[in-house]
């Protein structure tokens, strides 16, 4: 009986402690319900899924001892449980500034209510708009200073063509001023000889071409009368009279156009002088000019641009030299074909095609249409068709063989990028914009690729240094523990 009484007292003591703890937890829960009578705490719902318990309104009965002989230690344990802090129920705060309580289905801020894709699209859009505005300002400034801009760009292209010769002379011990001046004067003399040759050929063959053009016009008139159109002499005469009347009535506009042409001639002469002046100083003192430009950059960007500059210059040099070689081959092949077909002005046409080939893929094709028109007027449609076949064949050889073989991997620009760049450059800056568009794209591609590889290399070095530091810390942390038994 004594042993049974002791076991009963122990069981009664444990049940009293459990009942006291349950009473404390119930009081805490009712206090939380009183703070927010409409909602249950979210953590409670998350921790206890299932049916939501209905809160009791009647007070919980006090936990009475099951036997009169409950020890005072049981009451002390119950008081300790009652004084112990209850589990923290994280009640989300109210919306700051809106005066609304938390709701599980309501976002904390209005920005969280916007879908993620829409937020990404909006942020990308305003960044693109900002970039477009910056580009518009740059193009506006370039358009205002177009003479200076095109002079500098043309000088860079000419310098990229002539600078290897200056470097070769410098390596042979020729003074810098003499090497730069000699190469510059040689290039200027070459350009002058090409211009003189074109003028000489045109002036020599102009009478024959004029006579052939007249014969071609007469043949065209006969074809309009006897051909499928069956026009009459009176209709042709009326059409010619209308052209003459239009020219006579628009004399003022033609005069203003001639004045505009004079202004353009003055601008071209000014641009040529600036180009020659800039080219000479780039050949003479290009390295110092580049160092001076680097000092104008922020300190954090100097090292990156100091590495990107030589790579960009290498790309520009390879592009110019390869383009000159491709243009020479195009002009030579088309000129030989035109001369074999008996079209007059074969050499001047070859020079025009050579200059037009500086616009990749489309320049030689556009300037080659002049040869097709001259062949049509002087030799007839069959010869014009043959000239067109020769032109298309040379263009196919250029795009599939010459461009990949000569330019190689120095200029990595997709043909679609070339065509779009030439079109955009022509719209923005005319012929000059079409000429400088592709080298600008090639140089930009090289600079961006270099900076990206530099950032990747820097990130790899940083990661390696962090890994080495963490390994050293782990080694330093494990070394005393390993050496401790030896010291003991």
Determine the fraction of residues in helical runs and give it as a percent range. over 70%
Radius of gyration: 44 Å
Number of helices: 13
Distance between the termini: 59 Å
Mean pLDDT: 75
Unreliable runs: 36-78, 80-99
DSSP E strands, number: 0
The arrangement of helices and strands along the chain is HHHHHHHHHHHHH
Shape: elongated
Description:
The longest helix has 73 residues, at 415-487. The protein has 488 residues and is mainly α. It has helices spanning 2-35, 42-47, 72-83, 116-144, 146-171, 176-226, 233-249, 251-295, 299-340, 346-356, 363-378, 381-407, 415-487.
Can you give keywords for this protein?
single chain, mainly alpha, 13 helices, 80% helix, 488 residues
Question: Can you give me a brief rundown of this structure?
Answer:
The chain is mainly alpha-helical. It is 80% helix and 0% strand.
